[in-house]
């Protein structure tokens, strides 16, 4: 961190630090940055090798903001949160508080189950041997642990909106300081012998400071000395401690509690427990003795660990606004008593929450190493449950804009990170036109690994009415297939793209290839084009020509002739294909029993003169006679102009035959 | 915190341009050593050179990838006064079982410029397969490949002369308001006039013409970049000059019903030194600027739509330093209903968004 909170990162590239050189960076599609050494040159500088050429290695650095989500265990967090997020969007802003609390709990339970999975994963043998992965898992535990802890506190203070917070805070503190409770379980199992255990009293103290009265009583009753008066009196005090229940009259509770409190203090002062110093100290904690609690603070790992317990014994009906003062005082005490402890980020954020300092809390929440999982979902929840609206208004924070922006960034982050795009798209769907526009930009840029994936992308685009994306994907696949010499696929995708130019280009290629080699590419695909042939006039021609080709191959010469004549008349024949088409007519014209009528034969002759001849002339004027590089080729003849006379003769002969047959009666 | 993966570029001299394909899975680099290298990312995220060839007889300034619907095509421009178009083709199969080899072939060399070709960029795909070049003699040339299956023909479609030498150009990818919108910058230092020019297709004269000059920027300009448009109703142009600029272009229609561009220039002086290069991310929510101070600055638009510098990446330093690992928990873990996790360690060193 440097200059007013701007994040600084040092790369340390030798070449880039040499004089005259500097560092440059470009965004890599996805969420990476490529860095490399840069040296500025202009058109007027002399073009010569750099004086440092060859001295330092030239490196490119693929840089990416660290993310935990490469870890497979954590993927489920993203997926499950995505589902909860969707549920919340459906609830909208009019649901009951209980429903929002449920959503909040759902998010937390995702984190908790993920933490458990992480712990398990950490113990697995393959992770134990993989140093890097172990580190990653540990980092993830740290981050998600904090996320859960903060979310839980946030839920207690701002979503549940309880009148009194102590009992919830106790649950919260206990969950996050489970050590004492664990040890207590061990001790309880040991029975009477537990009291000989070295840490017996320190555990009992911790339990009291966490407000675990029942467990403390159980442990005390197991003590060897449990029968003594002092223990019995202690049991009596703890048992009779009034606990506030929902619906109780506050006033009445106060007087009961006050009475119990004074009574406890009196008993301690009377020296009832003087024989048992540990027990006395314990009860002094219960009575809220400041000296004892100061000692307790010194044992705490985090400042907030024993705060709820302290409140239980000093201010059991603490309200949220009172918590603010209590927490500030407690933090001061903690800082005084543990000056050597640095305030860690999490402690700071806990106190921000208690202090109702949400503006800074939200800022700090974004620094959590969770690629904004926590901040995005929490802000979305805050926005929906609407309880903090006045706070944000007062602090000049445009909450809807902030939420929108967070979701947009989070969604686009997921969409640009490989394998997570399917989750990201749901978030962007919540961002109105901007999200739609982002999807339109990002969806076609997802690497097309397989045709199945492409189909999936196309469906998503179609659901959103993004026809341009659909067409773009089809065009890319078509060109890719074409480059890989899979022409049937190329044609198929081209037709799906509905792009006339592309369909024409692919059809052209197939036709030219045929006239050059006599080999029809991808007959199966062409046979299945059917009604889709109208994507391009060239494709219509190709399909029809293919039909002719099939008739001819199956020796159905009559149908073939009819189709050929139709094709010649159709006016969709590409220039380059005229020679092939007319050459095709030759065997039909030369057939012993005529297949083509006189009228059609005249038409063919007409096409030879009006279509083929001008093309040949143009060709000759462009490339010169007998030039090998003609615009068109046919596999059957060497030089296209040579066939002219052959064609004319064939026509003449057929005409003669046809005329005779058509105009004479058949001889029976 | 950033994860860094160094790749040995194996160029003999400094790299001038690193450009990624549409998906970010292929990379083209060019250098003063007159070679172009094509890199592919494998399934494990490792980058490997798959082609490397001497492309020009001078330093190569810039590379540009065509949209994948036109195949695997790159264009290069060089000090040797030419620009070239290269296409990847399948080589001859070595055997039936082997995957065919791929190689890059030169499709054309564009030799129209009489001075160094300083920038080259393929147009957005809606215009077809178009290529614009900027050269030191101040001419912008727009070439078009009429047949996308045969890239050997690249007739010049438009030629626009400017008085000042040009150092960079950028196509606007959005079709909002105007088509064929193109910006170019000049690094000429002597005259105190505007250094960023805007060009667009004029229906009246049926050619591309200069439509405006950004007069606020009079210092030499070394890079311009139009932002991708994700639903904005205005265009953003980043300009690298003595400072970093973001120019907002809004289409307005005046009283006489002629639509023109309203130009608003915002200056960012954080670099405190000349800025050489600019680059947008895919959604134009972030911007990278390269300064002469050895720093790459990362800019981010906050939720109030203000641009803020979010991170600085420095050339110097001893390389990435990592936070010490958090202590392993020593707590005795025993049977208990509650889950237990240790919680010490850093939780926050991520770049905040807002």
TrEMBL record, chain A:
GO terms for molecular function: structural constituent of nuclear pore. It comes from the Eukaryota. Keywords: Membrane, mRNA transport, Nuclear pore complex, Nucleus, Protein transport, Translocation, Transport. It holds the Pfam family Nucleopor_Nup85. It is found in: Nucleus, Nuclear pore complex. One of its GO terms (biological process) is mRNA export from nucleus. Functions as a component of the nuclear pore complex (NPC). Belongs to the nucleoporin Nup85 family. Component of the nuclear pore complex (NPC). This is Nuclear pore complex protein Nup75. It comes from Drosophila simulans (Fruit fly).
Automatic annotation (TrEMBL), chain B:
PROSITE patterns: WD_REPEATS_2 (PS50082), WD_REPEATS_REGION (PS50294). GO terms for molecular function: structural molecule activity. It comes from the Eukaryota. It is found in: Lysosome; Nucleus envelope. Its main location: other. Keywords: Cell cycle, Cell division, Lysosome, Mitosis, Nucleus, Protein transport, Repeat, Transport, WD repeat. GO terms for biological process: cell division; cellular response to amino acid starvation; germarium-derived egg chamber formation; negative regulation of autophagy; positive regulation of autophagy; positive regulation of cell size; positive regulation of TORC1 signaling; protein transport. WD repeats lie at residues 8-40, 268-302. One of its GO terms (cellular component) is autolysosome. Belongs to the WD repeat SEC13 family. This is GD10530. It comes from Drosophila simulans (Fruit fly).
């Amino acid at each position: 961190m440097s200059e007013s909170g701007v994040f600084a990162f040092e790369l340390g590239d030798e070449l880039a630090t040499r004089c005259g050189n500097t560092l440059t960076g470009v965004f890599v599609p996805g969420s990476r940055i490529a860095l490399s050494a840069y040296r500025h040159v202009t058109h007027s500088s002399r073009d010569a090798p750099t004086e440092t050429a060859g001295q330092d290695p030239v490196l490119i650095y693929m840089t990416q903001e660290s993310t935990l989500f490469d870890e497979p265990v954590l993927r489920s967090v993203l997926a499950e949160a995505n589902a909860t997020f969707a549920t919340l969007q459906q609830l909208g802003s009019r649901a009951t508080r209980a429903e929002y609390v449920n959503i909040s709990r759902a998010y937390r339970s995702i984190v908790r189950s993920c933490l458990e999975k992480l712990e398990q994963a950490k113990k697995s043998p393959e992770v134990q041997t993989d140093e890097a992965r172990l580190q990653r898992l540990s980092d993830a535990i740290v981050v998600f642990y904090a996320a859960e802890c903060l979310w839980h506190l946030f839920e207690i203070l701002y979503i549940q909106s309880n009148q009194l917070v102590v009992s919830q805070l106790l649950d919260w503190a206990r969950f996050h300081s489970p050590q004492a409770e664990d040890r207590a379980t061990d001790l309880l199992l040991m029975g009477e012998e537990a009291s000989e255990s070295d840490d017996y009293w320190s555990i009992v103290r911790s339990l009291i400071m966490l407000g675990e009265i029942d467990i403390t009583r159980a442990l005390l009753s197991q003590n060897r000395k449990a029968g003594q008066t002092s223990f019995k009196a202690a049991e009596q005090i703890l048992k009779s401690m009034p606990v506030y229940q929902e619906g109780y009259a506050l006033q009445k509770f106060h007087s009961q509690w006050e009475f119990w409190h004074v009574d406890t203090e009196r008993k301690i002062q009377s020296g009832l427990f003087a024989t048992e110093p540990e027990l006395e100290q314990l009860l002094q904690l219960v009575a809220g003795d400041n000296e004892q609690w100061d000692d307790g603070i010194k044992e705490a790992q985090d400042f907030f660990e024993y705060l709820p317990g302290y409140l239980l014994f000093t201010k059991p009906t603490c309200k949220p606004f009172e918590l603010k003062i209590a927490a500030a005082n407690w933090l001061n005490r903690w800082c005084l008593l543990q000056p050597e402890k640095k305030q860690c980020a999490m402690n700071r954020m806990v106190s921000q929450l208690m202090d109702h300092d949400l503006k800074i809390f939200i800022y700090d929440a974004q620094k959590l190493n969770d690629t904004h999982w926590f901040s995005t979902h929490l802000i979305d929840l805050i926005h929906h449950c609407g309880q903090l609206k006045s706070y944000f208004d007062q602090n000049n924070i445009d909450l809807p804009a902030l939420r929108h922006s967070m979701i947009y960034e989070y969604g686009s982050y997921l969409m640009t990170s490989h394998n997570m795009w399917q989750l990201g798209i749901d978030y962007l769907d919540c961002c109105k036109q901007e999200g739609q526009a982002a999807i339109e930009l990002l969806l076609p840029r997802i690497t097309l690994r397989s045709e199945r994936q492409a189909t999936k992308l196309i469906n998503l685009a179609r659901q959103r009415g993004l026809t341009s994306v659909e067409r773009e994907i089809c065009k890319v696949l078509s060109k890719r297939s074409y480059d890989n010499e899979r022409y049937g696929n190329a044609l198929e995708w081209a037709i799906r793209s509905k792009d006339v130019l592309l369909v024409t280009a692919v059809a052209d290629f197939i036709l030219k290839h045929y006239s050059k080699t006599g080999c029809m590419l991808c007959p199966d695909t062409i046979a299945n084009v059917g009604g889709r042939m109208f994507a391009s006039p060239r494709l219509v021609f190709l399909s029809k020509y293919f039909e002719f080709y099939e008739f001819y191959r199956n020796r159905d010469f009559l149908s073939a002739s009819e189709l050929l004549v139709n094709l010649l008349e159709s006016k969709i024949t590409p220039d380059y294909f005229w020679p092939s088409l007319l050459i095709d007519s030759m065997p039909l014209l030369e057939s012993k029993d005529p297949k083509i009528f006189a009228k059609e034969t005249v038409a063919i002759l007409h096409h030879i003169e009006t279509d083929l001849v001008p093309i040949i002339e143009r060709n000759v004027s462009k490339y010169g006679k007998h030039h090998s590089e003609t615009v068109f080729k046919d596999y059957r003849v060497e030089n296209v102009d040579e066939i002219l006379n052959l064609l004319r003769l064939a026509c003449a002969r057929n005409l003669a035959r046809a005329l005779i047959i058509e105009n004479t009666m058949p001889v029976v | 915190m950033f994860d860094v993966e160094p790749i040995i570029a194996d160029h003999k001299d400094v790299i001038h341009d690193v450009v990624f394909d549409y998906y970010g899975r292929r990379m083209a680099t060019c250098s003063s050593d007159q070679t172009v290298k094509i890199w592919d990312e494998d399934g494990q995220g490792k980058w490997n050179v798959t082609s490397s060839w001497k492309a020009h007889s001078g330093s190569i300034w810039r590379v540009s990838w065509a949209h994948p619907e036109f195949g695997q095509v790159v264009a290069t421009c060089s000090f040797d006064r030419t620009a070239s178009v290269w296409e990847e083709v399948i080589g001859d199969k070595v055997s039936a079982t082997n995957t065919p080899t791929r190689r890059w072939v030169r499709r054309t060399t564009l030799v129209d410029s009489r001075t160094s070709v300083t920038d080259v960029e393929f147009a957005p795909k809606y215009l077809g397969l178009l290529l614009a070049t900027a050269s030191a003699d101040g001419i912008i040339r727009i070439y078009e490949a009429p047949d996308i299956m045969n890239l050997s023909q690249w007739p010049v479609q438009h030629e626009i002369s400017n008085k000042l030498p040009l150092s960079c150009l950028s196509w606007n990818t959005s079709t909002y308001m105007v088509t064929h919108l193109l910006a170019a910058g000049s690094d000429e230092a002597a005259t105190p006039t505007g250094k960023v020019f805007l060009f667009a297709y004029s229906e009246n004269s049926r050619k591309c013409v200069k439509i405006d000059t950004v007069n606020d920027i009079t210092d030499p300009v070394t890079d311009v970049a139009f932002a991708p448009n994700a639903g904005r109703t205005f265009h953003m142009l980043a300009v690298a000059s003595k400072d970093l600029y973001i120019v907002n272009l809004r289409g307005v229609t005046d009283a006489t019903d002629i639509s023109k561009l309203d130009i608003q220039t915002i200056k960012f002086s954080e670099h405190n030194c000349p800025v050489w290069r600019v680059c947008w991310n895919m959604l134009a929510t972030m911007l990278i600027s390269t300064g002469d101070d050895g720093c790459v600055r990362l800019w981010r638009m906050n939720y109030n739509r203000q641009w803020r510098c979010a991170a600085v990446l420095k050339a110097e330093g001893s390389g990435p330093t990592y936070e010490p690992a958090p202590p392993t928990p020593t707590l005795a873990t025993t049977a208990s209903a509650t889950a237990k996790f240790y919680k010490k360690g850093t939780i926050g060193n991520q770049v905040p968004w807002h």
